[in-house]
Amino acid sequence: MRVAFVSDAVYPWHFGGLEVLQHTEASELAKTHDVHIFSMRWPGMKRTFQQERMTYHTFHEVTQSKFYRHGRRSIREALAFSMSTFGIFRYKFDVIIANEFPVLHLPILKLYCMLRHCKLIVNVYEVWDKEYWTQYLGLLPGLLANAYASAALKVADAYVTISSTTMNNLIALGVKRQHIRVFSPVIDDRFMSGINAGKKHKSIIFWGRLIKEKRVDKWLMAVSQISRKIKDLHAVIIGDGPERKNLEKSIREHGLERVVELKHSYRNEQRRELFKAVKEAGLLLQMSEREGLSLIVLESIALGTPVLVPSYSPIPKEVKDMCIVADESSIAGVAAKILNSNDKSKYIRNKENLKEFYISNVNHFYSELFDELK
Q1: What stretch of H or E contains 180?
Q2: Same domain, 177 and 194
Q3: Is the domain of 209 the same as that of 116?
Q4: What's the gap between Cα 112 and its chain centre?
Q5: 267 and 153 share one domain
Q6: Structural domain of 216
Q7: What is the full DSSP assignment across 68-103?
Q8: Cβ count near 320 (within 10 Å)
Q9: Are residues 7 and 152 in the same domain?
Q10: Which has the closest alpha carbon to 348: 319, 373, 311, 328?
Q11: From CA 239, how far away is CA 330, in angstroms rounded?
Q12: Where does the pLDDT of residue 252 fall: very low under 50, low under 70, confident under 90, or very high at 90 and above?
């Protein structure tokens, strides 16, 4: 099969859980199919090139500062990327697998599929409601975006959602259940089995994109409280994003310069070092208020590091069931208890559920889906 993946942001040029998931699927499919990636042209990318058995096509130049404006994705860049997807009309594909965001491009891809007798699969990570759209963009732009997104998300031949929660939200939008599959191949079971690390420390870790929705500000407040309970606490934030400068300022304001270490994201070839750092940590604290699945939670559990989340966490039930959940007001106390424990494995629940997230299942899953769509 000739398969096209379409997404404005791609890993490793843009780092995020969803980008990692998409890269995992594409690279696994490239072992048995002819896979092409269509994206924006991030720094370091050429117009057309091959990497890891995949062919990349880039149509519009972008940088991190252009991609985000005022802490959110730039509408201008979303429009530019969407219009650039007309470039796919120069090629012939059997299947297009598209990232749902920025949504504007989906009708263009549907038009391509109608003219080229191609099938459109949309990877859906989050379904935003009217309240969230208006909060994100403002009243009138949010209402318009909600109306457009509700219609545009219904054009696909099939949908792959990352959780049961996302599936239910998509059904509520009007998509028929029989067109939806739940699949989240985010755990590289073969690679992780070879990660060796030293003894776990009394340290707290967070890694991911530094955006407002991750609520690293709340993470810092929690660490400040935990540091009063545990002497010589070490906390690490690994990531980059529009909130990095604000976090640097907050670390100074909270007097946490000797407690919190702020590191840049690891490059793709350094992921063994990243996973080693996670495996050696005593706890991953995830305070995010917007998550479709939460890759960092799953990978931390796979590495044997307990995960603590607040009760408001939006991660789906199948993921939350493997975590320790606490009210926001009691996070510091629970975290201290976990870090002081000599057996941190007892704070990982239902670890057998991880099998549902292994990437070794990718080709089997998509082969069945492709056959159904023929």
Answers
A1: strand 180-182
A2: no
A3: no
A4: 27
A5: no
A6: 189-356
A7: EETTEE-HHHHHHHHHHGGGGGGS--SEEEEE-TTS
A8: 20
A9: yes
A10: 319
A11: 26
A12: very high
Residues 158, 239: one domain? no
What is the 3 state secondary structure string of 189-230?
A: HHHHCCCCCCCCCCEEEEECCCCHHHCHHHHHHHHHHHHCCC
**126 and 221 both lie in a single domain:** no
Cβ proximity of 118 and 95 under 8 Å:
yes
On the question of pLDDT at 269 being above 80, the answer is no
What confidence tens digit (pLDDT) does each residue in 49-61 have? 999 999 999 999 9
Using CA atoms, how far apart are residues 263 and 271, in angstroms rounded to an integer?
A: 14
What's the number of domains the chain is made of?
A: 2
331 CB-contact burial (10 Å; exposed 0-12 / middle 13-18 / buried 19+): buried
The distance from CA 200 to its chain's CA centroid, rounded to whole angstroms, is: 26
CA atoms within 13 A on the CB side of 346: 7
Taking alpha carbons only, the member of 179, 153, 123, 39 closest to residue 293 is 123
pLDDT tens-digit readout, 49-105: 999 999 999 999 999 889 988 778 898 999 999 999 999 999 999 999 999 999 999
Dihedral sign for Cα 66, 292, 108, 359, please.
positive
Residue 166 CA: distances (Å) to CA of 43, 163, 173, 291, 317? 32, 5, 11, 10, 11
pLDDT confidence tier of residue 198, bands split at 50, 70 and 90: confident
What is the overall mean pLDDT for the chain?
93
The CATH number assigned to the domain holding 306 equals 3.40.50.2000
Q: Are residues 170 and 281 in the same domain?
A: no
CA atoms of 49 and 36, how far apart (whole Å)? 10
In the structure, what pLDDT confidence band is assigned to residue 193 with cuts at 50, 70 and 90? Answer: confident
Are 225 and 302 in the same domain? yes
The whole-angstrom separation of Cα 265 and Cα 57 is 25
pLDDT of 56: 98
User: Is residue 20 predicted with pLDDT exceeding 90?
Assistant: no
User: How many CA atoms within 13 Å lie on the side-chain side of 217?
Assistant: 11
What CA–CA distance (Å, rounded) separates 150 from 124? 13
Rg (CA), the chain: 21
Q: Does residue 314 contact residue 300 with C-beta atoms inside 8 Å?
A: no
